[in-house]
Amino acid sequence: MTITLEYVKKLMGWCPNTGAFEGRQYSDIGKIELDTLDDIRGRNGDLRSEPKKTSFITNILKLVSGNITAQILSIIFVFLAVKIYNPEYIGISHLILSISSILMIFSTFSYQFAIMLPKTEEDSANLACLCTILVTLTSLITALILLFFPKYVDYLLNSPEISNYLIYIPAIIFFNGIFLTQNYWLSRKTSFGVIAGSKVINSVSTGVLQLAIPIWNVSPLGLIVGYIVGYGNADFFMLKDIREDLRIFKKVSLKRVKEIAIQYKDFPLFNSSSTLTNTISLQIPTILLGHYYGTSIVGYFFLANQILNIPLGFLGAAIEQVFFQKISAVKNGNESGGMKDIVEEVYKKLILIGVFPTLLFLILGKEIFTFIYGESWYISGIYIKILVPWIFLVFISQPISSLYMVFDKQGVWFTFSITLLISRVIALVIGGTYGSPEFALGLFSFTGVLFWIWNNSYLLNLAGINKIKSAKIFLKCVTISIIVLLPLILLKVFSVSFYIILLAVVLMTPIYYGITLHDDPTFKRMFSALLCGVKNKI
């Protein structure tokens, strides 16, 4: 059995919040990707595989390639969208999505995380059907509630137009819930190519509609409808691959669905609670900024947060999805390798990848936004400098946060999440009451930095990794980044043309990654696999 997780966060999700592998074979314990027939050992589903080292890298490449394509498209569409929609419209749509994100936690009660865990595909299929039933019921109940209390939500959020768009929240919940369910089913099958493709479909559909609808009417509706249709198209795309498994889903029974719901009750009891609190922690800035400062400030915040999460958040989510599949398979004895070595290797790569863009945003965040989006969006550039330290710490810990599940530490994760939520609410209320949006976001980011430092330390200790060694890797990367970026800093100090500064960034980026990754064996395998893939396509 292979197991994986996309956590979006939510966790997950992520982000969560993406073609099946060739050469797939079937066994009684699951549909597992096998590189060759020689990987099959035993009979009656007794699997003893020794996957090639490159399979882990190949899976990451499949997800990362899909994520990169999807996010490049997202960057283009966001750039075009801010030329059409003003900050207020973007703020309204983001408020709708923030409310939907919180309600989405109830749509599956976190049972989607359990889809990869059963030893039989029949039980996994029952879990998938359970998720589908819960998603449908949650969407219907939400629709009924919003029909009776739209003005009350409008009053709480201090947005005079928000009630006009609340009716779209049930559709957002439904299509996102189905997307999550199919994502985890396909992850169990290691169909990472299909998952990657769904993300591209999502980005293209969303972006095209968000740019096309304003031809008739410029309003938040274009952003909201584009988002809904994007996930709907992604759902239909993944459904084509799942149709191959109809023979499994025909064995689903209501009795077994009830039994499986009880068997995995810890997921709604602990995971749903912790995921809910973590999601509220992520969405609370949008809600409270809207309450204290209005939807325009929400629009500025959304753009800053979106641009940061595109290069860092989604790459981390892709690595997490394959990472959890790998360590879970190792723990179950289905794959060889040491868990500590895997965690240490992934954590090191995350630091190497994340440090450089973090420092780059700290130095040029405001200038980048002004140059790309215009003077009217310079406030987002200020916000990005405030948020980037927190985003970096989330980036390096998000992929390995699935260790909470592997080691059955959901209770610790819940305690961490609820404490973080309370601290963030306090920080934002204090900032919103006594200061500017910058002050409120500063307190929010500082709180996140403190908590995610603790989270990193706890996870490293859980995996038995030397924290001093990890700290040395971090300091080494920071030192190299500062040295590489020193000419860039001097160019900024002497007010050189921003075009020259951008050219310097283009030149310095490969220099940094060349220095830090040139002797890394994993990077060499990834680079070789990527070159082989390109060569085969040519």
UniProtKB/TrEMBL annotation:
Task: Keywords in alphabetical order, please.
Answer: Cell membrane, Membrane, Transmembrane, Transmembrane helix
Q: Where in the cell is it found?
A: Cell membrane
One GO term describing the cellular component: plasma membrane
The way this protein sits in the membrane is described as: Multi-pass membrane protein
Say if the entry is tagged with keyword Membrane.
yes
Record bears the keyword Transmembrane: yes
Q: What is this protein called?
A: O-antigen flippase Wzx
Name the InterPro entries on file.
Answer: Poly_Biosynth_Transport
Q: Which residues cross the membrane?
A: 60-82, 94-115, 127-150, 162-180, 350-372, 378-400, 412-434, 440-461, 473-490, 496-515
